[in-house]
Amino acid sequence: MTSLAAFKNFTCGLNEQEQIMPVLFIGHGSPMNGIEDSEFSRRWTQIAKEIPTPKAVLVVSAHWFTSGTRITAMDFPKTIHDFGGFPQELFDVQYPAPGNPALANETAGLLHSAHVELDHDWGLDHGAWTIIRHMYPDANIPVLQLSIDYTKGPQFHYDLGKELYALRKKGVLLIGSGNMVHNLRMVAWDKLNDQDYGYDWAKDINEKFKSLIQEGNYKPLINYSSLGKEALLAIPTPEHYLPLMYTLGAKGGKDDISIFNDKAVGGSLTMTSVKIG
């Protein structure tokens, strides 16, 4: 558990620093990645060693879909087990990272495109803790979540990502957590353990997404329905795709882009992830 002295430091405001933090989009996949030693979780562990240690982490997770925009503002967010049918070992996991109410309030003030409510009820859902417990296993870095307003379209979320850029200058690691291709209705459950098994349409649209990201051509990604039937198969509902909009919106003009964990799972899911900066 975090000490009281350390917690008091967490609740202080953050100053700008010379080094700008990167921003990530992480394909989180199955909740089991939270406890398994997989190629995906190993890469999450490694990437944390490659980037500066953040002063805080702000996650936009596919699993907090709300009317309006909210941000967690409690001292110690609870660990949410928002799934069913998995081993008890997964339900037993607790990730006791502190929150940062002062940063939550500051972030709410940064987001001029939305009225942001300070939330004291949510916590860290599996789109956040399954990743971050591999990155920062000591749970000693404050973690906040920002919800996704389901009443708004991709452009709105991209614009919010642009406003979040200022947090990168204060040492905050921004993470969008979802999956670029996420169609659970078409999953080949018998192929989940096959390495990089994806339907042709899933791999084709995933390649298109990657090309547009690396080219910096975000307009078609924002208007993804214009990319044809493969995009609509990849995104039957938007919650796992919209976190990517926040990541792309928070990109700076001089940031490099790299792709990692670039594999398909179960035919109709991709773990493809993006590091910016």
Characterise the protein shown here.
- There is one protein chain.
- This protein is globular.
- The strands form three sheets. Strands 5-2-6-1-10-7 form a six-stranded mixed beta sheet, with helices on both faces.
- It is built from ten helices and ten strands.
- It starts with a helix and ends with a strand.
- 33% of the residues lie in helices and 18% in strands.
- The chain has a single domain (4-276), classed as Protocatechuate 4,5-dioxygenase, Chain B (3-Layer(aba) Sandwich).
- The protein is an alpha/beta fold.
- The longest helix is centred in the C-terminal third of the chain and has 16 residues, at 200-215.
- 45% of the residues are buried.
Measure the end-to-end span: 31 Å
| Average predicted confidence as pLDDT | 94
User: Helix content range of the residues, please?
Assistant: 25-40%
Going by CATH, the architecture would be: 3-Layer(aba) Sandwich
How do the strands line up in the largest sheet? Answer: 5-2-6-1-10-7
Count up the domains. Answer: 1
CATH class: Alpha Beta
Cofactor: Zn(2+)
Protein name: Dioxygenase
Keywords: Dioxygenase, Metal-binding, Oxidoreductase, Zinc
Family: Belongs to the DODA-type extradiol aromatic ring-opening dioxygenase family.
Short description:
Its cofactor is Zn(2+). InterPro entries: Extradiol_dOase_DODA (IPR014436), Xdiol_dOase_suB (IPR004183). The protein has 277 residues and is α/β, with parallel strands linked by helices.
Task: Please specify the SSE layout and strand pairing.
Blueprint: H1 4-10, E1 23-27, H2 39-50, E2 56-66, E3 69-72, H3 88-91, H4 101-110, E4 116-119, H5 126-135, E5 143-149, H6 154-168, E6 172-178, H7 200-215, H8 219-222, H9 229-234, H10 242-249, E7 257-260, E8 264-265, E9 269-270, E10 273-276
Parallel strand pairs: 1-6, 2-5, 2-6, 3-4
Antiparallel strand pairs: 1-10, 7-10, 8-9
